Amino acid sequence: MSEREDEREVEAPDGGSSRAGGAREGEVGEPSGEGPLRARASHADEQHTAHGQRHTAHGLPQLIAERRAKAERLREVGAELAPYSYPGVEPIAGVRAAYEHLEMAQETDEPHRVAGRIAARRGAGKAAFLDLVDRSGKIQLHARADVLGAEPFKQLLSLDLGDLLGVDGAPLRSRHGELTLRVDAFQVLGKALRPPPDKHAGLTDVETRHRRRELDLIASEEARALFADRARIVSAVRAYLDGQGFLEVETPVLQPLYGGALARPFTTHHNALDRQLYLRIATELYLKRLIVGGLERVYELGKNFRNEGLSTKHNPEFTVVEWYEAYADYAGEASRMEQMVASAAAAVAYEGELDFAPPWRRISFVEAIAQATGIDLLAHRDAPSLAAAIAERGLEMPTGDRSWPQLADDLLSKHVEPTLIQPTFVLDYPIELSPLARAHRDDGRLAERWEAFAGGMEIANAFSELTDPDEQRARFEAQARLALAGDEEAQPHDELFLEALEHGMPPTGGVGVGIDRLVMLLTGRSSIREVVLFPAMRD
Asked: What is the mean pLDDT of residues 513-530?
C-alpha cells in the first residue's frame, strides 16, 4: 500500500466510523446509471421511508430497475453474478485476529480469501475503500486500479451497497491504524436487486425488524450478535446435559392427544389417517414413557405450541428444553438447573445485573402469596372462599368463572412473579395446580414442584414426577371434572400414559426450561420477539 493520499474518517453505514482514502471520498449511497461516480449524484435524491430503508426520488421500483440494468451490463462483459461456489472463504474475524499485531503502515503478502456484503464504499480516481461485512465482523478493503487493472477496478466500483462480494488479498495496516485487506482479485457472488436498509437510520420500525428479520440482520451488527449468542446458549445447554450423561431424543410434534401442561392446543387434520391431531404443548408425557423404557436420563430441545395470547413474554411457538432423570427428585433438579444456567451464562460472558451464581433464593408458593397479598391459600380451599378473600383485600383481578387452581395461579402470576427479579425458586405448589407432580412428602395438600423465576418472569418448571399410576388416574379424573366445568386448559385423560406407568416408573425428577426467556435474560432483552428470529405477528 504505497501511494497514499490522506485518509480521513467518514461515517460508515454500520453506524461506526471507517477510514476513507483517495483524493476525495464518494458518498455512501446508491449508484444509479453507469460508472462508479454516479453514486454521489444519486445520493442527494435519496429519501428515507418509515421503515428506515432508502429509495431514490424516482421511487423504489425505479431503483430496482436500475440495479437490474446494471446486473445485465455486468453479464454483457462476462461477469458471473451467481457462481455455484466460492471455496476457501475465511471468517473476517479470523483474519482480523491473525493480524492485530501489524504496526502502522505495515503490509504483508500473505493471501487470504474473505466474502460478504458490501456495506460502504468511498473513494474515486485510482483508489477506493470498501467495507465488507460477514457474520463474524467487518473489514476494510483497499482497491487500486494499478493492482486490479482499469476495467476490473471500474467494475468493482460500479457495484452497489448490499452486493455480495468475494475478495482475495493480503492484510495490511493503514497509516491511520485500520486493519485492511488489499484487493488483489474479486468475484461478484450475488447481485442485490433491492437496496439494503439505511445503515445510518437502520430499520426504525420495530414491526418491520420482526417481520423482515433478514433486513434487520443485514442492517444491524447487534442483531447478528444477538442470534449468535442465542446459538451459543443453546449449544451450552446441550453441552451441559450431554456432559451429564443425558441422551437427546426426539418425540412427536403431531400428537393424537396433547398433554404435559395446562394449555390450549393448536389442532390440525391428518388427511391420510383421517384423524384430528394436535401440535404438542409439551414433551413431558412421551419423555416419561422413555424413562419407563429404561433410558434413565433423556432430554429434548425443540418447539412447543400453545394456542394462547401474545405478549412480551409469550409467543405461540416457543423453544423449550425438557429433561428427565431417573432416581432424582425436584430438589436435585433445582441444583442441576442452577448449574445449567451458569454454563449458559458463561457461554455468552454474561455480566448483567442478575446474579445467576448458586444457590438461588428459595420460597414456598404459599408463603410467596401470603407475603405479596396477605392471603393464606391453605385457609381458602375452594373458589368462592378464595374469591371472597381476593375481593376483601381489593386486589385487581377477575374472579368470576375462575376455578380455585386458576385463582391461585393468577395470584402468583399477577402479584408475585413481577417482583421476582433475582433468580428464585418458588417451591411446593398446591396439588391442584400440578396434576403430573408427586404429592409433597410432608404435606399432601402440596406437590413437590418448583418454578424458577428471574427478571420478573417464569423461566422453568420442575417436579418430583408422579410415578403411581392409580394416583395419576385420579388426578386425570379431577382434571376431567375441571374441563366439564369449563376449564379449557385442563389436562386431558391419557390412557396410554397410564398404561406406561403401570409397567413401573422409577423415582424421577423432571425440568422444563424456556429457552427463549433464558435468552432474553442473558442478552438483556425485554421482549420475546427480539430473541425469536421470526416471531408470530398480527396481520
From this structure: 97
